[in-house]
Amino acid sequence: MKNNIHYFFFSFCAILFSCSSPATKYENANTITNTCSMIFIDKSVSVNVNKKFINEKYTRIINQLIDENIKAKGDKIEVYFIHENTGQAKVSELMARTEMEDLEGASATDAEAKQTEFNIDLNKEKAVFKKIVSSQLTAQNTSSSKNSTDILAALPIIDNAIGKGFQVKAYFLSDMVESMTTANRRDFHKNPPVDDASAVGWAREDADKLQSTLPNINMAKIYIAKPFEPTASRKLNNPAISAYWQRLFKELGVAAEVTEL
User: Fold this and answer.
1) From CA 41, how far away is CA 226, in angstroms rounded?
2) Inter-residue contact 212 to 168 (CB < 8 Å)
3) Where is the signal peptide, in residue numbers (predicted)?
4) S-S: 110 plus which of 106, 140, 186, 193, CB 3.0-4.6 Å?
């Protein structure tokens, strides 16, 4: 009888251990990670960021996203240019270095002082980031790469950053007019989607080709800021192009709805 009791006791312990292990792994896998804000600035011929409306809109968005997303040591900003060679066009990588001191055992007065010092130092760092990114916003692209627009090349970059453990927020400062003249690519300048039906169909086709190469893209948060004034015509700001991108990210499994800024 005693042996039976010992048997059930150890069996029970083994069951508890086996049940608790996956939960521990799950909790570790969902630990809050740093944010990587990826800014893709359109440097193709169709977007002129020196126009007053565009410059003011994009500057406001850049300042806001830096304020919102740079909160702790390890948060970072990456800036890429969108043109013919988007995949090779990283122009800035900025990582926050300001670290909050350990407040354990500190008095209320000391804790408040350390928090204030941290906020001041972090705001200084943010100001530097804003200056650097703004300089990239106004940089001119004088090379022939401005004649093409490879937005799809941004997707593997986003996917890779998520794979490294970052919470990724991707901001496209672009008219989103994909324009590649190579075989099996879209050229929305010459052949844009004419309605939502064609946009959705093309998005499904392209998602089918890309799906297997983007295992992490579903966790991205996508923001699109087009350079058009509210009074822009449908010919200039083609709503079917917006439908294409909305559907493409949905087909790729992106959980959060694409946000237009």
Assistant:
1) 11
2) no
3) 1-25
4) 106
The reported pLDDT for the residue numbered 9 is 38
pLDDT for the residue 188: 96
DSSP per position, the chain: -HHHHHHHHHHHHHHHHHHHHHHHHHHHHT----EEEEEEEE-STT--TTSHHHHHHHHHHHHHHHHHH--STT-EEEEEEESTTGGG-EEEEEE----PPP-TT--HHHHHHHHHHHHHHHHHHHHHHHHHHHHHHH----SGGGG-B--TTHHHHHHHHHHTT-EEEEEEES----B--STT--BTTTS---SHHHHHHHHHHHHHHHGGG-TTGGG-EEEEE----TT--TTTS-HHHHHHHHHHHHHTT--SPPEE-
* Residue environment code for 160-195, b if the CB has 16+ CB neighbours within 10 A, otherwise e: ebbeeebbbbbbbbbbbbbbbeeeeebebbeebbee
pTM of the model: 0.85
> With 0-12 CB in 10 A as exposed, 13-18 as middle and 19+ as buried, what is 105?
exposed
pLDDT in tens, 201-245: 999 999 999 999 999 999 999 999 999 999 999 999 999 999 999
Q: What is the per-residue pLDDT across 163-181, written as a single tens digit (0 to 9) for each?
A: 999 999 999 999 999 999 9
C-alpha 57/C-alpha 41 separation (Å) is 13
